[in-house]
Amino acid sequence: MSLQQFMNEAISPWLKQEGPDNDIVLSTRIRLARNLDQVPFPIVSEEEDLEKVLEFFKEEYESESLNDYENLELVRMGVLDPVEKRVLVEKHLISPHLTERGQHSAALISQNEQVSIMINEEDHIRMQLYFPGFQLEKALQEAFIIDDWLEDKLDFAFDETRGYLTSCPTNVGTGMRASVMMHLPALVMTQQMNRIVPAINQLGLVVRGIYGEGSEAVGNIFQISNQITLGKSEKDIIEDLKSVVYQLIEQERHARNRLMTQIGMKLEDRIFRSYGVLANSRIIESKESANCLSDLRLGIDLGYITNVSKSILNELMIMTQPGFLQHYAKQSLSPDERDVRRASLIRERLNLEDE
């Protein structure tokens, strides 16, 4: 897959697949941070060292395949324009921080976009692997396979006492961040998230927005991940996270059932009003579109909406973001122009779905 295909396809191929509990859990991600032994970490490296690391990955791994993760393509940040970088961030293929690292940073991305190995971000290597729905054990198992595959040719910075050494002390140990993206509209509507978030934080987990640290939870989408990487094994971390996610799934389903029982007509009215806004608006801001798409997704899950597929909503979540809108338009757009383009794009996609 070429860079242009990464840009043009709003929804990643792996996200088109069905996953367990996908009425609430959108995706599962495992990220492993690694550094090379005997090479200065990126935050203190000279440009020459960073370029050597990058060239090694280009020579050894570009166009390579591992199991279902075929034709890894190396995408250098230095050759991308700001819109192209933003699109890759919006698709979760790279982190916002990688875009700021300069010409010696890159990402190796598999053809199905399920694997992205960021090079010279905060650490030499930040590999991330995605699965649809709730699949923590499967994602961890596959991440270990990729980790071993890389380690066949690389020596990682590792301490027998501390574990994997990373630029940020919060990643030392396993170097792992496990995260689950969840759609929790009923818990938000019933104002339960206000008490749930602090409780989750006390368990050594963290609740963030759709783009991770520092991002807002728009469209009732939350990312739940571990904070602790030191002193626990990867499997222990997974078990802790899995326990909390199962509780959230149960609570969200209970809240949905309660809303249908107590305010069924009002809930249905809200969902169809949001559908009407999306299908008819000529101008719509990003936050409003995200909230309306959340209502529409809830309506599909509850059986109110039967003529729209969730795959279209997954696509629209990306297509309505600022970077993708500008890439789609092939020009820079002001915020007002993006709002017009966003509304037009949503109407077009929903009308195609109705045909």
Describe this protein with a few key phrases.
355 residues; alpha+beta; eight-stranded antiparallel sheet; two-stranded antiparallel ribbon; 12 helices; 46% helix; 15% strand
Query: Count the strands?
Result: 10
Biggest sheet overview: 8 strands, antiparallel
> How many individual helices?
12
| Helicity range | 40-55%
Order of helices and strands: HEHEHHEEEHEEEHHEEHHHHH
Proportion in β-strands:
5-15%
Cα(first) to Cα(last) distance is: 30 Å
Q: Based on CA inertia axes, which overall geometry fits?
A: globular
Task: Give the strand order, joined by hyphens, for the main sheet.
Answer: 2-3-4-5-1-8-10-9
Structural class: alpha+beta
* Uncertain segments: none
Report the average pLDDT across residues: 91
Radius of gyration: 21 Å
